[in-house]
From TrEMBL:
GO terms for biological process: antibiotic biosynthetic process. PANTHER family: STEROL 3-BETA-GLUCOSYLTRANSFERASE, STEROL 3-BETA-GLUCOSYLTRANSFERASE UGT80A2. This is UDP glycosyltransferase. Belongs to the UDP-glycosyltransferase family. The keyword Nuclease does not apply. Keywords: Transferase. One of its GO terms (molecular function) is hexosyltransferase activity.
Amino acid sequence: MGRHIAFVNAPTVGEVYPTLPIVAELVRRGHRVGYATVAARAEAVAATGALVVPYTSSLPAESDRDLRRPDRADYITTVREGFLGEARATLPQLAPYFRDDRPDLMVFGMQSLAGRLIAIRDGLPAVQFQSFQAANEHWSIARHLALTVTPRPGMPDHQAQLDAYTTAQGVDPDTVRAFEPLAQLLLYPRFMQFRADTFGERCHFVGPCTGPRPFQPRWAPADPDRPVVLISLGTVYNRLPGFYRTCVEAFAGTHWQAVLAVGERTDPAELGPVPGNVTVAATVPQLDVLAHAAAFVTHAGMGGILEAIRAGVPMLTVPQTPEQEVNALRVAELGVGRPLDSATPTAGALRAAVDNLTTDHGVHEALTHLQAELRTYGGATLAADIIESTLP
């Protein structure tokens, strides 16, 4: 008989999309999945067969043009404060629902304090997952990049804020710190993790979890004989109309078919006239485009990196956050991509970087090797197996 499994995580594309094939597999096996998400993700979640548990997020909407990327030194503090604010907003919405319809297991994203607190307060067995490089006593993004995490002037540090909040929710802060989920699912391959050898047996590198996306339109190139370059800076810190204008100039009138996914924060009209060999859209079905692409100019989010390796597409990385910086460093170490030398390249430099990348035989050999390694991972099937193994 199927069991009731709850999913609670951040509502971003990078956090939701990797979980969808896992949820679809659990539903296929007869389980009832209640997935907490926002209206913008409801269609994607419902397509898996899960029950959508709606809530309103405090995080900026993807169409919010006022969102600004924090200063690099302030990024981690800003993110931590944002997700504490998200817990304050979402816990009162979700806790009553899962108390009335008690799940047999809570599966929560690493950044979801609400999911963690529901599991602790209600005594639920739990599994944690994350789609970005994990940290332990041996490695973290902040230490790798030598970032100092300091509180804002006049504000207590993050741990003090967190302790005060959990205490107000009736949970001892020491209990939160000591809480260990039954398993930790890392939704990427071991080769993407710095110091992977230092992570214990409770951490499962399940590999990329990629599956059909029936909620997206299909895509094929207008001219199958011309190479495709996909350009995307993700769905968060993506309001860079100047960079997109450079991309249009770089590929206008060339043999390339350029596909620019500029997000909802940028009006395509801001890019000016667009030639026939350049397509500009808020979003594109990335898996379909990568299936035809010869190059990928990317912010180096984990999901996009794995989709590119899976498709055998070399990457030119333009990271926007520290999390993406370490991903870009790993991509370069693995030999499957290169960093763009400048955050404000000229059109000629950008086009030359893409041309040089696509003609580098070493990059293509590295991609072929990692493609084969990716196929050895269980992905969504393995993740579902581990989740089932923890059910009481």
